[in-house]
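@channel sequence for tomorrow's demo:
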Amino acid sequence: MEGVIRSLPGSPLPPGVQLTPQGINFALFARNAEAVTLVIALPGRQRALSFPLNPNTNRSGDIWHILLQNAPPSLRYGYRVTGPQTADCGVLLDPYARALSGGPWGTSRPELGVSPCCLIDHEVYDWEGDRPLGRPIQDTIIYEVHLRGFTRHPSSGVTCPGTFRGLTEKIDYLRDLGVTAVELLPVSEFDETEALFSHPETRVPLGNYWGYHPLLFGAPKAAYASKPAAVLREFRDMVKALHRAGIELFLDVVFNHTAEGGRQGKCTCFRGITPDIYYLRDPKSGDYLNFSGCGNTCNCNHPVTRNLIMDMLRWWVVEMHVDGFRFDLASILNRGPDGAILANPPVVELLAEDPVLAGTKIIAEAWDAGGLYQVGSFSTSKRWAEWNGRFRDDVRAFMCSCPGSVSRLATRIAGSSDLYRSHGRGPCNSINFLTSHDGFTLADLVSYNHKHNENNGENNRDGDNNNMSWNSGWEGPTADPGIQAFRMRRIRTFAVILLLSSGVPMLVAGDELGRSQGGNNNAWNQDNPTSWLDWTLVRKNQGLLRFFQSLIQLRKQHRCFRRTDFFPEKAGPEGAEIRWFGQRGAEADWSEESRALAFLLRGVQQGRLREADFFVMLNGNVDVPAVFSVPRPPVRGRRWMRLIETAAPSPADFVADGKGVLLNVGMEITVPPMGCVVLQAGRQMRTA
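structure tokens (generated this afternoon):
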């Protein structure tokens, strides 16, 4: 029989909740609080219990703490906090909570602020020897996924669509595709039912589908579990299954703002505890500074907030076995208490130097909504990789036939040394991408000149107007077989550039299948087939899927595409490791008018092993073919054979290794508009 719950003063450390032999210890930072009450709800009982904390015995410095004896770890808990800076906001969430109670996706959250809903991680989980994989960054191929959208479509065929288990059921697909890391859009708790807009025709409320509005930083979303009460176990099951397949898991984390919004926003956690520490605020007006575009900005470099961020990341790595993080609007991490840019931001340095995170990938989205753009300059640390927005823009410019794009394209293909050569950084500091969740899909990039976001309910005002896209001659869907073939050619050429460039490639789930969002470039509130992956495309566009699989395999087989250092500026005894060409064997044309570029990539040699060489020809002209001459292979006795031709239908677009047509030196190769041809000379071989 359950005993009477007794309270003891408890300990100020660690923050959050800890199960001890004496009982359950609760600790909450609340500097300016005048009164703190722990509120708990026991299983099977409707009435909550309150435990007021005595400031004389239950407070150490700024930490309020209490230990409960005879309390079941399956309880729910929260806090009431009052003080000069905070009105009574009801029952607040613990910033250190590991999970929240909740129902399936779409369930409203009336309990927030009303009743305790924080859960304790009390189950013992058997990891069966699992550890984070620690794959070298140069061998990484990232696949960005919205957890719900990946399997929510009726065609997914999974038993638990839209959940951690649903993704687990698709691991065979991920392994066959060849990606090495899945990067999930935010899976920390958020309220998907908060609807700011409605569909313009049906008037149906549009919720927060993407999840970039965190309630907490360390609690996986209960609605992403097939059984919400088992969310921690199901998340861990997913990670363990991914690791068994050799696939790492990265999380898109949002530490730049929270769901509480600005002055008139909600009060669910931080605002009700110590808002001046957790948020940037105007000292005169008290308004919340907004560098996130979402109403508030976290005070990331305050020691308390900084410790919270570090503790949450360590929790994800140590207790949940996460392999890496992508930091949303990461430039906010570089801002000080007044929003000014710091020369040496403490939190950025801590993230790079923390010993627990030493084997973890850390990736910055190196800009924010306040106009700060730091691609190439986010941090001098070699640990920090960055989403390379310039790679995206410069490759798109070339594939839109923009003037002056050839020289910029060459720089991006070679690893963006203009951005990452300083401070000992290299190509792997560049996360190369052409598309992401934010913007057009790859299919839409070649099908639309303009965004079509009317269904978002904002009269098409939302989303970026500068897409660097071209519709290939017709806006949107068309039955014209010529335009359809041209678009497919452009998609394949985009893919070649992405996967054969120096740096770490990232592609978005569905791009390998030709997935379209109907021209919507900001589908943050589209929880419908617009954003869901239609798995019938696996059969419909099986040729495109095969092309991506083959490209990924090619990248894995040849280290010349996975360099950790930049190409030497001077040629070695065997010649340059990369050589640039223009048309018909001429030197590369770097003029504003140039639209064509080729490069010869020498295979990597280690000891007596010598890998294959490659000659890549790219035509960025809209309607004019480009003619290139086949150069002499770097290794005597080797011959070129045609490997890739993006204008050819499947399976001729990518021939099997060693089965391509042999070509003679000096032969002319015609590359059609927006096309690409890749030649390969030799395989891995022993040299004298």
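heads up for whoever presents: Confidence is low (pLDDT under 50) at residues 684-688.
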